[in-house]
Amino acid sequence: MKQLTERVDNLNLKFSNSNTIIKEFSTKGFKQQEFLKTGKSPLIGKFDEQISEVRNNMEFIENNIPDQKTLRDQIEQLKSEIEKFETDFSTLTNVYIRRGFQDYGIEGELRKAIHDVEDSDLDFDKAQMLMLRRHEKDFFLRKDLKYVSKFNADTEKFKTSVYSIEGGTDLIAFIDVYHKKFNEIVNIEEQIGLTSEDGILGKLTADTETIGSILNNTTNSVKEHVSKIINSAVLILIGLFVLQLIVGAVLVLFYSNILTKSIKEVRSAMTKLANGSFPDTLTIKSKDELGQTKVALNNLVLRMHAAVDFAKELGNGNFEGEYDEKYNDDVLAVSIISMQEKLITSEKEQKIISWSNEGLARFADILNMDFESLETMGDKIVNEVVNRLKINQAALYLLDKDSNILNRVSTYAYSKKKFLTGTVDVGEGLVGQCVLEKEKILMTDVPDGYTTITSGLGEATPSAILIMPLKIRDEVIGVLELASFHVFETQEIQFVEKVSENIANVLVSKRMAEKTKALLTESQQKAEALASQEEELRQNAEEMQATQEEMERQRAELNEKIEKLESELYAKNQHIVNLEDKLLRNRKKEKVFEN
């Protein structure tokens, strides 16, 4: 009866929710892009969920209400109205899809038409067009038909003004489309309902009021019926309770002496068990509830004995012991066996972790050593990998970026070094392919002829090949190739991956150190050569300076001699001039004398 009341209240709540969803959908839900594109909407989904809950509640109420004609008629009427309500909402969603919003449906066509008008190159009156847009927006905002009349009248005025423009025929066609689409939307809005009392919205409002009235009557009828049944049930239960007290008092007096002794035995045993010790086995004298209790307690003690013995074995480190098969289904047994399995797994994992940590520590010590060259370091690394993994063959390749070739710097087999040399082009074979893919290659089906492992007993093809790239920040600097007669286990592969990262880091550091050392040596040699050249240049400069000083001295002497010669030459020239003047005077005198 309580559940029936809850279902009635839930029916009212779900219907109220569905009505709220319709209001939300009619105000903004139909504008959602998902609904405009697909016709589906979260609000429609919620509405369907609420209506489904309404139907479930009505079905439960119909199956649990008394066979009263009034209630049955109300439920049938309610079902009919709910179907009508759901149909009206479906009609509303279809109309909204046809109407559209913004760029969708008829409103999208309306917007496109007015945009065609706006984008026209003709010199028309923009004010008239903007007035049409204003009437359009006013109608959408206020849902008042007077704006429709204004829109139609102003449209005719706008068309008349366009007629006088040259080439206005095409523009009038766009205006007619815009006019037509606007009136189509007006018709749809009238179909939907300009107010909550008109159109489909008005129908939904009427449906809501009718369903609400029926729900109110049904709720009152059901709750009144439930209240009567609960009151009757309370009276019956009170009578039964009083009768039970009387019978119980009689039975307590009759069986108290019989039960007290057995209860004390059970209590004593339980007390010992609670205090941490095992009680003695109880004697079974009857098959009643107390006898069954003693049997259960004895079985409990035996199960606990088995659990304690098994736990002691686990505590002593014997993880391979087996639990007593009789108690395998016991909850405690299952827990302890599960603990045993976890301890075994934990021990294995701990061994793997210890093995891995020990190996990583060993490699860390090796990689921190100061080796003379990369080849020496490679020999030590490969030897340690072979010994740690107990494999049969290993090789270390380093990538030469300049030539794009992998140089094999170290190879070991059965812990005896094979002084082999060789190169592999990038992309050649599995080793070269590993450089391109930058990922490990694990091959457990090794083809004949790929490689062989040689020992004193002959040659054999390995069972597994592991090729691991040596990477730093996704850059491959080398490859580590391993071959073994046994298949590589997961922890071994993970160990090699971790070691490869450390090897790559150290090899890069070592290679950079060697390059740095070579560059330093070259730099020192160049510095010495530059110092020698500088000294030679300094000596040459000193010699040039001495030569320049000597030249300056000689030039000064030469200038002095030139000045002296010029002075002597000037004096001689003056003497010659004087002689010529004297000679000229003498000739004049001779001529005068001759005359």
Describe this structure in words.
It is a single chain. With 595 residues, the chain is an alpha+beta fold. 72% of the residues lie in helices and 8% in strands. The protein has helices at 2-27, 33-38, 42-64, 69-99, 105-118, 126-142, 146-163, 168-192, 199-274, 289-315, 331-367, 374-389, 429-437, 490-594, and strands at 393-400, 405-413, 416-417, 423-425, 441-443, 453-455, 458-460, 464-472, 475-484. Strands 1, 2, 3, 4, 5, 8 and 9 form a 7-stranded antiparallel β-sheet that branches.
Distance from N terminus to C terminus (CA atoms, Å) equals 186 Å
Count the beta strands. Answer: 9
The helix-strand sequence is HHHHHHHHHHHHEEEEHEEEEEH
Q: In percent terms, what proportion of residues is strand? A: 5-15%
Query: What is the CA-based Rg, rounded?
Result: 56 Å
Main sheet summary: 7 strands, antiparallel
Helix content: over 70%
What coarse outline follows from CA principal-axis ratios? flat
How would the blueprint of this fold be written?
Blueprint: H1 2-27, H2 33-38, H3 42-64, H4 69-99, H5 105-118, H6 126-142, H7 146-163, H8 168-192, H9 199-274, H10 289-315, H11 331-367, H12 374-389, E1 393-400, E2 405-413, E3 416-417, E4 423-425, H13 429-437, E5 441-443, E6 453-455, E7 458-460, E8 464-472, E9 475-484, H14 490-594
Antiparallel strand pairs: 1-2, 1-9, 2-3, 2-4, 5-8, 6-7, 8-9
